[in-house]
Amino acid sequence: MVKIYGFVAEFNPFHNGHKLFIDEIKKKYHPDVLIAVVSGNFVQRGDFAIVDKWSRTDAAIKSGVDLVVELPFAYSVEPANLFAKGSIRLLHDLGINNLVFGTETDLDFANVAAKLLRTDTEFDQNYQDSYARNLNQVYSNAGLDVLNHPNQLLGLNYVQEILANDYEIDVNTVLRRSGGTSATEIRNKINDSQNINKLIPNIMQNHLKASKNVFWDDYFELLKYRIQSSSVTELHDIYQMVEGLEYKFIKEIDKSNNFNDFLDAVKSKRYTRARLRRLSMYTLMNVKSSDINSVFENPYLRILGFDTIGKQYLNALKKSIDIPLITRVGKKESDLLSLELKVDKIRSLVDDREQDFGRIPIMEGENQC
């Protein structure tokens, strides 16, 4: 049987640890095809990807990935369970038979996931604490430490999706080596104008130098305008705007000088910074529940890049795939990609490079800018 391996990534930015992860997959599992579902221009904790999806795709293809597919905004800017739901669905549609992900500790994910699926997922919420910490207690009772090992949480949710949907996908892991610099640390160094050349491959260094490196503060004035110019009713209609948070947003935005000040002012035990970053992103982009539901109800595969092996696999996949497979954006695709086109256009207010129209997949590792 042809070994089709897939993984989920943000590559924010692509660094030496990612290259090592790809090398380890090839050394340990010898896949015939290696597919990456990669977050587009926005990432799971409600941040902007520091460089655009095309730059990160180029680095991935040149580092050994055969096929890169975009994880849409509706999936990528979500808590772990919905992030995993969208990611695994796309990987299943891509025909993988093996999932691989990194983990900080050796853990029997299949056994723990099966145990949790057999357990009543409802639990008594302690309203003196955040939902995330309450949920962490449930995971702790199952033997997981998701606060100190966040990749365990994503890995667990991936496996739960596979089991819940009876997907014929085997689960494999690569142990993450301790002592490596994280993508968060690299982004902080970039923001502080520190040298990070020893931490990232040359191809990513070139993209970082050639493009605008974006952060939330680049868009803070736009967020402030969005909140100040909206009525309470308009803000209430934003996706995931619950429990009167629209009033808190209106109250605190005038007092805040930057995005971190705003998060600090709005944050409480009930709401983590990650959740509030996502909510701020939905607010900036004017995202409604209908926008998110539309993507979940009408999935598609947006191809960002491939090498020769990936191209051959795509040609075979076209004969059996039953959801749209998109390699370029035209009038026909615009309705299906309406949310992605909107959020990419807002990103382009700061990073002015076109993200969708006229762009074709990166081929053979050659950037098609």
Entry keywords:
369 residues, alpha/beta, Rossmann fold, 2 domains, 8 strands, disordered C terminus
Structure notes:
The chain is of the alpha/beta class. The chain folds into 2 domains: 4-212 and 293-363, 3-Layer(aba) Sandwich (Rossmann fold); 216-291, no CATH class. It is built from 18 helices and 8 strands. The chain has helices at 16-29, 53-62, 73-76, 80-93, 109-117, 131-141, 150-164, 183-191, 202-210, 220-228, 232-236, 245-253, 259-266, 273-285, 289-297, 308-317, 331-334, 338-347, and strands at 4-9, 33-39, 67-71, 98-103, 170-175, 301-306, 325-326, 362-363. Strands 1, 2, 3, 4, 5, 6, 7 and 8 form an 8-stranded mixed β-sheet that branches. The two termini are 37 Å apart. Belongs to the TmcAL family. This is tRNA(Met) cytidine acetate ligase. One of its GO terms (molecular function) is tRNA binding.
Give a nutshell description of this structure.
The protein has 369 residues and is α/β, with parallel strands linked by helices.
SSE layout:
Layout: E1 4-9, H1 16-29, E2 33-39, H2 53-62, E3 67-71, H3 73-76, H4 80-93, E4 98-103, H5 109-117, H6 131-141, H7 150-164, E5 170-175, H8 183-191, H9 202-210, H10 220-228, H11 232-236, H12 245-253, H13 259-266, H14 273-285, H15 289-297, E6 301-306, H16 308-317, E7 325-326, H17 331-334, H18 338-347, E8 362-363
Parallel strand pairs: 1-2, 1-4, 2-3, 4-5, 6-7, 6-8
Antiparallel strand pairs: 3-6
Helix pairs in contact: 2-9, 4-7, 5-7, 10-14
- Secondary structure tally: strands: 8
Name the average pLDDT: 91
Q: How many discrete domains?
A: 2
Radius of gyration: 20 Å
